[in-house]
Design brief:
Layout (H helix, E strand, L loop, with lengths): L2 H9 L14 H10 L26 E6 L3 H9 L4 E9 L8 H4 L7 E8 L6 H10 L8 E2 L2 E2 L6 E4 L2 H15 L9 E4 L4 E2 L7 H4 L4 H17 L11
Parallel strand pairs: 6-7
Antiparallel strand pairs: 1-3, 1-6, 2-3, 2-8, 4-5
Length: about 240
């Protein structure tokens, strides 16, 4: 990477929890959007085959749903967690049927980029997945994460039953005592997850040299690994 790019990377550092003292200014976000390809804007690339969500038995696995900025970033983080079998990128939280990247990007569908996490509850709990969620994002950033701004990138944490909602509410109550700004994530009853386009699946794996992946996704993932080493799969499985 050139010295110029290293300087920009320093200016636009991605903090694992985006602490307020390191929040990027409006002009830095503009610069970042010009310099790097934003999430979802990259051209379709080669993809590896991936099992479908229906391939996983409900008798063995459970499903959890999260929205936290660009789904490329969040998919990568959750796929590294021990007990998580698979993660799919898609859309949820809106009021229109069959959303696509193009339609959700207008901000008029109500949907946010989201992920479906298929996990073994005997190996990892929903509570731990909630800890991963809040521990890998800027919990007070409204309407986006990092350089990805707009309602389609807003934070939403979905619950499927009252037990899950109680876990989420307890976590938010605890976090609220640590910050002088409101916790940004919407808490929403899960209704439906719409699978994203094929080229969005495993995007980091298939496109390791993409500028956005290298300069946004990888730093966010790396910071997560530093914060939660005890949750990671063995290196051979990541």
């Amino acid at each position: 990477m050139s010295k110029f790019n290293e300087t920009l990377k320093t200016i636009l550092v991605i903090n694992p929890i985006f602490e307020s003292k390191k929040m990027k200014s409006f002009y830095s976000l503009i610069l970042l959007s010009i310099l790097f390809v934003s999430c979802g804007k990259a051209q379709n690339s080669q993809t590896t085959s991936k099992l479908t969500s229906e391939s996983f038995s409900d008798d063995t696995f459970d499903r959890a749903y999260f929205a936290s900025g660009c789904f490329w970033c969040v998919e990568t983080i959750y796929e590294s967690v021990n007990g998580v079998e698979e993660v799919f990128s898609g859309y949820s939280g809106g009021n229109t049927k069959n959303p696509t990247y193009e339609s959700s990007n207008t901000g008029r569908t109500g949907h946010a980029e989201a992920i479906e996490v298929i996990y073994d509850p005997k190996m990892v709990s929903f509570k731990t997945l909630v800890d991963v969620y809040f521990g890998s994002q800027n919990v007070t950033q409204q309407n986006g994460q990092g350089p990805d701004i707009g309602s389609q990138y807003r934070s939403i944490i979905f619950y499927k039953n009252e037990d899950q909602k109680a876990i989420i509410d307890t976590k938010i109550e605890s976090l609220s005592k640590e910050y002088n700004k409101p916790i940004a994530a919407e808490v929403m009853a899960f209704e439906k997850f719409w699978m994203g386009e094929k080229y969005h699946q495993d995007y980091k794996i298939n496109n390791p040299n993409n500028p956005y992946i290298r300069n946004v996704s990888v730093p966010r993932y790396t910071n997560f690994k530093v914060r939660f080493p005890e949750l990671l799969k063995p290196k051979s499985e990541r």
